[in-house]
């Protein structure tokens, strides 16, 4: 059952402080908020309180949203606007988001369990992506080719790819939306967004901000709901030209299957198993801080989490003693407290999965140095909290070395030379990111080139800027997000070729007398 209501009731309880009562959202289709009777309840992962209710979108909702996006693309005006017009509107949206960063950050904390410090950083990233895409909208053009000889000229025009389906995961709901949406809009595409069923609040809020900033109806649509229903309907829809999907590698395979219906283009940002590779000549104080940050940032629920630490055996004991000392000082708890370092895991099934990996680590003979347990006392009583966990002497064949855990669980393996370090880092089906720690510039360059991942950080980790591309090698997926590469993903190249002057005939022998 759906019914159309106005923005104020169905879009969100906009005037309400995000920290008070629960928020209820409808779907945003063709510029109208459409409420549904069937709702998905979202409970705060840190407290167990009801914080939001999202429409349980169906295939019919997706169909209506795609039809709206199709019409907005095919008949304009969005796809016909100038880059400057699109850029100006994207910049206005960025400014409006910037004015609401604190409220949006609170919503992210309530729905994801991440800390307020991380949420604020995410929202700053959202603003940067909208501003960066605004600038790129002005600048992005095709190319002209004048060196094809005196009688042939050509332009390669860059056209928007069309109607896009943007599927978002729960770990960075606003940031990953912003890695896709403004670039799609900057290119002149229209979009149907399917946020994660657990964390749809900020996607709805950003849609409302886009609407208020003047984005025409139908250009952006949001259908909330579950992956196998709303997500599947979107990825297999014939009216969608392109799907940008971020999520697990298992879901990515289903998206590939669904895309076969009309051979739509895909970008897939999937799982990761990043290594932090620390050589003996590194600044070990910096490297210890980074190795800990890389596995505990966002509770380890990050596709580029440094989940494997590869450490030079000659400094390993000293390094790990210091790492564990620091890990035990981290504050795990109330995500809304500015002092908190590590928040709550997304939901109880995920908590069970992380605990099961920890058990596999212990059973497999790895040495547990710290953590390894769920926290249930005091502030942790009603939430899904796991102590930062470090395993030493992890066998490269072990599940905790090979599989994505998506929690604050670090696997440490020692190496004895550079070749062994590279081989261990590359011993993964994933290839999203890695980080290298050394003060030797030759080692830094050699190892960076040898690592098979879309990002390599040298003497830094989980770093970046809206200008830089993010994407995978191997089973971490394909396509790039962010920066000019991210915008170009949402375009097609058309080559328009023109002959100048009289044609040199292919079949001169067929020619009759000139009339
Ligand atoms: P998920 O694959 O379960 O869900 C991601 C999104 O896909 C959700 O919106 C979900 O509803 C939807 N979905 C699920 N099944 C679908 C289907 N059959 N068809 C269409 N849509 C479907 O992943 P998750 O648990 O939300 O997120 C965690 C995963 O995402 C991890 O594996 C992580 O590594 C990955 N991730 C990757 C990146 C990256 O940039 N590469 C970034 C963040 C997260």
From TrEMBL:
The keyword Oxidoreductase applies. The active site is at residue 269. Pfam families: Aldedh (PF00171). It comes from the Bacteria. Coiled coil: none annotated. Transmembrane segments: none annotated. Residues 33-496 form the Aldehyde dehydrogenase domain. Residues 1-23 are annotated as: Disordered. Keywords: Oxidoreductase. PANTHER family: ALDEHYDE DEHYDROGENASE-RELATED. This is Aldehyde dehydrogenase family protein. It comes from Nocardioides astragali.
